[in-house]
Design brief:
The chain is 32% helix and 0% strand. By secondary structure, it is mostly helical. Bound molecules: iron/sulfur cluster.
Length: 306
């Protein structure tokens, strides 16, 4: 990832290249799960799902080997909601760790037992995803020590018993980790010269942000559904919890964007010119090429403060 003018190269960028490796246990491994995400959640017929499914009931497409029978055709089958779901490795942890390889969804009692645990584990693994990034972003110091301690604590929680996990106040933990990530974000973005103004939790649904300078801005929790972000400068932008469904990221630069996840990218649209953080893979359904120019001039970025 070459440095560009305005990049805060004095922060520890190099470990972010190894972030994907550090997150290897936070990637779904369906071969070690019993199809929990295809049994436990309910979904309703909508643009995301082709039919209704009650909670704790196997999806009609789930095979006896706990694999999806339409995995390669999910969008064509009207199931894009499945494509954007990621358990961050919670499924295999519940199956293999919490229940020691004995997790089952074959009878109501067994299903109820895993159903009480899976949503909690899903929250823990997502927090681990972000805390691992926070550690990679920071130089050695007290704040990095806090991030490490929070990650270690959260990791230990994933080894709790089913009863302990069911009783865990995951919402409180999310608040505490969210506060820590906010402080990490401030530190990391503070070195961006003349950073764009924050739009935290802003309602930007369908907004025209083509070519916008959002370098170093906080877009945490922002509603960006269907927003036009083509060519936008999102370097070092904090995208924690931002809703990017159907947002157009064609040609946008998300190099070094903070707290971005695979599901957020998968829910958005991009193209071959979209630049991503080094640790995240390009969604398979994005086109690899770039659209032909429309003739509209791309707005100039603000001049950098010297
Ligand atoms: S369509 Fe496939 S991925 Fe989606 S819930 Fe059903 S079995 Fe799971």
């Amino acid at each position: 990832m070459p440095a560009r003018p305005g990049d805060p190269v004095d922060l520890v960028l190099a470990p972010r290249d190894g972030l994907a490796l550090a997150r290897r246990d936070l990637t779904a491994d369906c071969s070690r799960c019993v199809g929990l995400c295809c049994v436990l959640p309910a979904f309703a017929a909508s643009a995301d799902f082709a039919f209704d499914k009650p909670a704790d009931t196997p999806c009609r497409h789930l095979q006896t080997d706990a694999r999806c029978g339409v995995h390669d055709q999910l969008r064509d089958r009207g199931m894009p909601g499945c494509v954007v779901f990621d358990c961050f490795g919670a499924g295999q942890r519940v199956t293999q760790v919490t229940f020691g390889g004995a997790a089952r969804t074959t009878d109501p009692a067994s299903t109820a037992a895993v159903s009480a645990v899976f949503p909690v584990m899903r929250q823990l693994t997502e927090l681990l995803w972000h805390l691992t990034e926070a550690e990679a972003l920071l130089p050695a110091g007290p704040l990095r020590g806090e991030a490490t301690a929070a990650r270690d604590h959260t990791e230990r929680l994933t080894h709790c018993t089913p009863a302990e996990l069911s009783a865990l106040d995951a919402a409180q933990l999310r608040r505490e980790v969210g506060d820590l990530l906010g402080r990490v974000s401030e530190v990391v973005r503070s070195v961006v010269p003349d950073r764009a103004r924050d739009r935290r939790s802003a309602d930007l649904m369908g907004a025209s942000l083509r070519g916008a300078d959002l370098h170093g801005a906080s877009l945490r929790g922002a509603q960006l559904i269907g927003a036009d972000l083509r060519g936008a400068d999102l370097r070092r932008a904090d995208l924690l919890g931002a809703d990017l469904r159907a947002a157009d990221l064609g040609g946008a630069d998300l190099t070094g964007a903070l707290f971005l996840t695979g599901p957020q990218l998968t829910a958005a649209r991009g193209d071959g010119a979209t630049r991503l953080p080094a640790s995240l893979a390009r969604p398979a359904h994005w086109p690899t090429g770039t659209p032909a120019p429309t003739g509209r001039a791309r707005p100039a970025r603000r001049p950098r403060r010297r």
